[in-house]
């Protein structure tokens, strides 16, 4: 018993040399096992020993009590069974003072077997000294193993236990005569029966040997493995299927749940056929080597199909490479459904002998798709099966969960390349197809709609007054012409008549407006049924119904319709007349988006006609970054707003967000960002992305683009890292265990400013991010200040690579938050600013110094090949120490102005300033058209002083009038200081000398290359 008054009991059973044990029931004085064990009986004089033990993870397990049951007692019992009975647990020795140790409920019986099929081994010889053998079944039900200090029994609630562990049975060399014992117990041989009653056996060696030969031959026939073609073996196994159900998911969790446009048999062949290259593709993706596959074999009378695969797992950060053995066994194969259990053993890893990893592949028929194509549903689950008890279970399961999740992400991508998922065709997936099947609403007739819309007290009053006046006109006599009246003009004769006429006119005008509003609302269409266009991120919203929609009219009902807005695109529902519980059953599909959406805004309006501003009855927001997409498949969303909150209004929606291009959309997004940033962006590993998602609680479709070390400026600067992804920018810092973590959406950012170095910023440039009003309030603890408009401001400074960080941040923000019109306007403003400044370098006052000037005996057009991006430029740059030199194509930015970006690494042996070099070049022709000017802005990365300055170069290449085939090259250098440093003079001298040397080397090599080309 533990100090808490509970215990963790389990039972160990032993019969001869055979041992087994039950699962451990945690913290329970009244455990329930309900487990069955089968033992092969060697001698009838043996005893079954049942021992109850309390598990202790830190010290030796504690003995609680035991029970001994003789097999002779079971043999003498009726039907060879003692039945279900309670047995008093006994102490280890008779001298123990504590006799009350609880009871255990057992069901013990003897049974016979018809063959040696279930025996652990087959013995081909025997001796006259062998005794009878049979099998014994023992079933545990319940026990009360321990007591309190006062000797009284305590009980507690039953809890789940761990998985059953077993100890390998020692094989006995003795021979068991199962068939002979069967004849004795079943009375098929009268002589044997009489011998059994006298507990004495007399058998002839001849009959015994014949019986043994018959059984062994039969067993060998049934147990002989059968090989053949994979399809034929599956067909044979399908004939043995008895209609059993598919196995349930393993308790470890589901790692892959996907539908595919393929038949179940084809999907099964792709995954498990010997002719499939699926395993080879997975091995290449995961770095697995030495892959060896045994052929599929039918075992156990053609009822089990099995094969063994061995391979060497690639080394990871935690473990070295290890040899693994995987046994794949078909649990079900009826031609339509398939279930394969893979048991993987890796004994060479730490604690590898303590557990096996089991993965269950279930292939079922998928849902019926709208285009009548067949689909297959692949569901993969896992668990860890511990064969021995260990204290490291939690660590083992955690590591296995992470490894399997990452591995099966690669498996999913490999399958998707060979078979297109159903989610990417016709916008269908398994859950999606089921949940998007909504009942069609019965269309009401126009007369019925008019009745519901026009039934109000005002309309009824107008009709009553109108009928009343019309009846009065019919029954009254014509009035006499008097006053100013003349024939054809009948004026009111009193103020009462004037008042009645005015009321009738006002009511008539009001009724006409109601009728006009009804006709326009009825003719106002919706976006229901409009199919999405393109590939990318596809958003589908099913608007099912509304509940308790607020009303602003006196009648207590409204005419609601819903507007959905996502990434600047809107979808509008139809109008439901005079109802507080509208039923729409409409589906809206947004066109494919290149960027994953961050949120969707939902607004419910009351239709007031075309001349009135629509009145909002409530609004809501769906945040795709913070929401679990699986929970959005069927959700009730409460509405916000003064009307909606008062009425507790809500909408019933089904929302699905899918990516139809797989990993291609990620690579395309990174390529687009590379053009904006001017630097190669590498795709992060699945492990890095998984850690990023786990750190900020982000969905699996969010991936990391880049991260930078920086300081978060508050009252005191906080060291941490800034993480950038397509939809969020996050910060994480951990100082002496005090963690600061938050993220904000790009869509919530109102402005980003790049501040030059000042004394307040400790001499380093900084980035200030300003959010929109009332946005990002959950990240308020990371904000530096709140401005007068109530907007949060975040200050980031002390970047190691400020230029890359600022360019990446600005590029991602512009790609996310700016509308197409704003992007065009921003480009125009930037171009106008450049034209006003007259230089690519901007308005910063930088003193330019000529560092190179020379004449080259070739035309200027040939010299410009050094900026052409071709093989000539590559060769020369490699010779002058530029490693991994890459350049983007020239792209026009405005009339006669072209721009490109360059990146390379400088060898320290040829330059004082080693590290990575990033530059942006612009070229344009001279006013007289006699040459070109190339302006270049250069920044050094991965250098100690790289953040202190940036370089600005200006190349002027012009033909000489004095020589027909010669040109002059002049290069000027300017240094823009970003930070103050006491080494400024020394750095300036080194930069000028190093740049002059490199320029001389570049144009010398260029002259040699061009002259050699002309000579050849």
Automatic annotation (TrEMBL):
InterPro entries assigned to the protein according to its UniProt record, in alphabetical order: At1g03370/At5g50170-like (IPR044511), C2_dom (IPR000008), C2_domain_sf (IPR035892), GRAM (IPR004182), PH-like_dom_sf (IPR011993), VASt (IPR031968)
Alphabetical list of CDD domains matching this protein = C2
Q: Does the keyword NAD apply?
A: no
Q: Where in the cell is it found?
A: Membrane
Q: Does the keyword Iron apply?
A: no
Please list where the region (Disordered) is annotated. Answer: 128-170
**Which Gene Ontology cellular component annotation is one that this UniProt entry carries?**
membrane
Keywords, A to Z? Membrane, Transmembrane, Transmembrane helix
Give me the stretches of Low complexity compositional bias.
Answer: 128-138, 146-164
Domain named VASt is located at 251-423, 847-1016
Q: In what residue span(s) does the C2 domain sit?
A: 1-87, 519-637
What membrane topology term does the record carry?
Single-pass membrane protein
Name assigned to this protein: C2 and GRAM domain-containing protein
Q: Which Pfam families match?
A: C2, GRAM, VASt
Matching SUPFAM superfamilies: C2 domain (Calcium/lipid-binding domain, CaLB)
